Amino acid sequence: MQEKLAITVLVITLALFALVMVLYNLMTHKKEDYNQIVLSQQEYDSRVIPFKRGDILDRNGTYLAASEKVYNLILDPKQIMSDPDAFLEPSVTALTECFGYDRTEIMNLIQEKKGKQYVLYAKQLTYDDKNKYDKYKTDKSKELKKAKKAIKGIWFEDEYKRVYPYNSMGSKVIGFANGDGMGGTGGIEQFYNTTLMGINGREYGYLNDDSNLERVIKPSTNGNTVVSTIDVNIQKIVEKYINEWEQQTGSKKVGVIVMDPNNAEVLAMADDKSFDLNNPRDLRPEFTAEVLRELGIKEAIADYKRKNKDAEPLTAETVPQHYSDQEIISLGTQVAWNQTWRNFTISDGFEPGSTEKIFTVSAALEEGAITGHETYECNRFLEVGGHKIKCVSRYGHGLITVEEGLMKSCNVVMMRIAQQIGKDKFYKYQQMFGFGSKTGIDLPGEADNKSNIYTVENAGPTDLATNSFGQNFNSTMIQMAAAYCSVINGGSYYEPHVVKQILNEQGAIIKKVDPVLVRETVSEPTAKFINEALFKTVNAEGGTGGAAKVAGYKVAGKTGTAEKIPRDKTNYVVSFCGYAPADNPQVLVYVVVDEPHVEDQPHSTYASQIFQKIMTDILPYLNIFPDTDTNGGAPAGDGAKLPEQEGITSETQSGTEGQEATQETGTQETTAPAPTMENGQPIPNEYLNPPEEYVNRQEGEDFNLPDSIPGDTGESTEGETESEEETTAQ
Q1: For the chain, how are helix, strand and coil distributed in percent, rounded to 5?
Q2: For residue range 507-558, what is the model confidence (pLDDT) as tens digits?
Q3: Cβ–Cβ < 8 Å for 56, 188
């Protein structure tokens, strides 16, 4: 037993001796290796170097959106607490005196997180804030050094803050960037997000062979600059008169688009629901707590239906059983944001009304269905498919030419012409002019209204008749503006766009956004005919666009007045699409006013007057000089005398075709020999030659339009992805 015990003791002694030798060897020969392993497990600086998001400029180089360098205040409690007697008090005092922070709060934070090396304490401090601290630290350094103390563990991290110098101006077309600058919402910020974004850099910390901390910096790559087609001064003018309209009269909605008709560049775009791009989530005053709750309940009903398709739908009374008050308000706030940020000019469809009439005439001229010299009898209405469809004139226009049909906005003339064109060709041209499809504008959220427009397959006689003067189908403002540009510029349909070029960080052009010619729509003779007719619409007696005249300029344009669904003769969309000069269009302005806040809505003058004020200011600004001959003279080139080419021939006989069309569609002609008033007296001249387009429908009249359009379900689409507000009634 003693021998076994001795052997055991000897083995243990040898093992301990071997362990001591191993530890000695580690301490003498492997010390640096293991020090480095231990140290490498500690936190060293490995921080992100943020990129600068690209700027957005207007066409003249004015900043619409920029990224301003700001600073995040970082604390290193571990360094401060490495010698609290020397570092704690001076560091805390520096923070309180420079930034006004609470001393007790900072002291407690440093002591609680004394093992941390990175604590983000404050975000987005300005350069002045940082400079104030740097100066304080420099001034105090000598004094603290004498006392063997120092300010430690405080440093600043670079960051960028998106700023919009003009606040709410151009909010719908510019959009805004999210807080981290990694994404945009709405407008150019969203559509060109990948162009504006850069690539973050990084700073790495590591230990070298001597256990010293080394740094490797991979620099960030900043985003590119986007130069837009928007002109700040024109945008200001547009928004000035939108605001004036809202303050004086107001409406449910109002939108304005200004374009260069020769390349479809958008010079300005706005509606009445602007918002502060620097504070995009600050709701407009109309969104009260009560309104938010109402919106939240509607959205909760829709949300529950989406998530529980087979369950019993919720009602306003049962919503609180499934959603808390906080959730309801949150849903309502989301809807309010969407409604605020939504761009009416490209996302909302409405029945355009008489602005459509130039496309009906253009299609007929192109196809040779008319020559432009025809006359038609307008006796108040035309009966088509069981509907007595009334003209804009309550008393009719009597005998009227094609040109006068545009000037006086005669529905009967348009219905007759549509019959002569025929359904197949009419809808071919509607498609050619871009109705029912997206224009391709470089902004997010564009609606195509494909489901809200008739086609050859589903259109009947009544649909053809009403579509000919802009009712019973939906269009967006950008669709209508782009189509107008294609007619008045001689037939070239360009893709509308809001960006001209892309610049790199050094300011060099890396991409030029040239106008995209999509297709040819009409011939030069047709364009001349339309231009002359629209010039007379504004300037000649009997034209409905007189309120759009601009002194000294040859302005042309077309009025529009559309009765909304439900057809209760109450709510209307009024509009005016015009341009100048009439003989060489350089700028187009399209104004839409939805439900003016007046008792008697259907006056095109509301839109024409806004147009007139905008055009009066922007024409001199664009260096478009006044014309010395503006007293009714026609634009250069007599559009009424169409050359015999491109399908427009003097031999075209409209009378026979009109009779055939009447038989095919079941249209019944009115038989009154000439329009008269109810008492049989001749109609006064002011009724036959009104200064504006006014849909004078009286209660009880047996005249009506169809009460639905394609895709109209009768349900509001409010809160849905494609549309937060009802569009089928517009």
Answers
A1: 40, 20, 40
A2: 999 999 999 999 999 999 999 999 999 999 999 988 999 999 999 999 999 9
A3: yes
Task: Report the predicted TM-score, pTM, of the whole model to 2 decimal places.
Answer: 0.84
Residues 6+ apart with CB under 8 A from 19: none
Rounded distance between C-alpha atoms, residue 354 and residue 346, angstroms: 19
Question: CA-to-CA distance for 536 and 540, rounded, in angstroms?
Answer: 5
* Chain segment 666-724, per-residue pLDDT in tens: 444 444 455 565 556 666 666 667 778 888 666 556 667 888 899 875 443 333 333 33
SS3 551: coil
Tokens 């008492």 label which residue?
Answer: 679
How far is 6 from 260, CA to CA, in rounded Å? Answer: 107
Residues 66, 265, 517, CA angle at the centre, nearest 5°?
A: 130
The CA distance from 57 to 232, in Å, is 9
Cα 91 from Cα 95, distance rounded (Å): 6
Q: Distance (Å, rounded) from C-alpha 304 to C-alpha 486?
A: 45
- Joined together, the tokens standing for residue 182 give 């990694």
Provide the CA 76 distance to its chain's centre, in angstroms: 45
Which of 481, 364, 355, 365 is closest to 406 using CA atoms?
355
Of 577, 66, 500, 601, the C-alpha closest to 345 is: 577
Q: What is the pLDDT of residues 328-369, one digit of tens each?
A: 999 999 999 999 999 999 999 999 999 999 999 999 999 999
